[in-house]
Amino acid sequence: MDQAEKVVIVTGASRGIGAGIVQRLLAKGYGVVACSRTIATTGQPNLAEVAGDISQPETASLVVRTAKQRFGRVDTLVNNVGAFLPKPFTEYTESEFATLAQVNLGGFFHVTQRAIVEMLNRGSGHIVNMTSSLLAEQPLKSLPAAMTAITKGGLNAVTRSLAIEYADKGIRVNAVAPGAIRTPMHAIDTHAALATLHPMGRIGEIEEIADAVLYLEGAAFVTGEILHVDGGAHAGRW
User: Fold this and answer.
1) Residue 111 three-state SS
2) Cα 4 to Cα 97: distance, rounded to the nearest angstrom
3) Could you report the per-residue pLDDT of 29-79, keeping only the tens digit for each?
4) In the predicted model, is pLDDT for residue 142 greater than 90?
5) What is the CATH number of domain 3-235?
6) Which of 28, 91, 150, 172 is the most buried (most CB within 10 A)?
7) What are the E-state strand segments in 20-147?
8) Domain boundaries in the chain?
9) pLDDT digits 0-9 by tens, 96-129
């Protein structure tokens, strides 16, 4: 299949990593449905923007329906939406727990279910989950974030589970686990400190995460992979 015919849904697409992934996909000729709570309509011919909360079932249905109506299919889903809230475990409120679960897990669950149904109808597809290296796999004493780790670590587990469940149905499921990336989430004055969290001594760039997504998209014999883009942080202590 020519990549120009492929259609990719990207959640959390209005800024940062999500926006970077959208632009790379468009540059490669993909049709893209971009979803975020607030997102501008640009009128680009290969891009459909959907404003809404992807953790809600009705938004998930709208996003998949938009892909089918605008482009006729769903080939790939990039679950990029996510929330990060670092604090000591005993200080999390019930409301914060509910929000993290709703965004990080609900934002995956509803749209992924609906996308996989479409992929099963076509006999092919690809899911890419955006997880976390520093929080889910290399907890840091200096950065307590247990509730974020639960939800992002859960995405690592479900990536492997779904990869096995659907491997014989033509659907691949992978994940990208970033380290600290230069996005609007991190103030400029924190970059030097964040760089020390990676053995390579710098923070990552949005383009490097987009590169990882594009690699997985083209890697037809790769499924169940957690691709770390974290300057070596997942490899151990240093």
Assistant:
1) helix
2) 41
3) 999 999 999 998 999 999 999 999 999 999 999 999 999 999 999 999 999
4) no
5) 3.40.50.720
6) 172
7) 31-36, 47-51, 76-79, 125-130
8) 3-235
9) 999 999 999 999 999 999 999 999 999 999 999 9
The torsion of the CA quartet 23, 29, 33, 35, rounded to 10 degrees, works out to -10
The type of residue at 18 is G
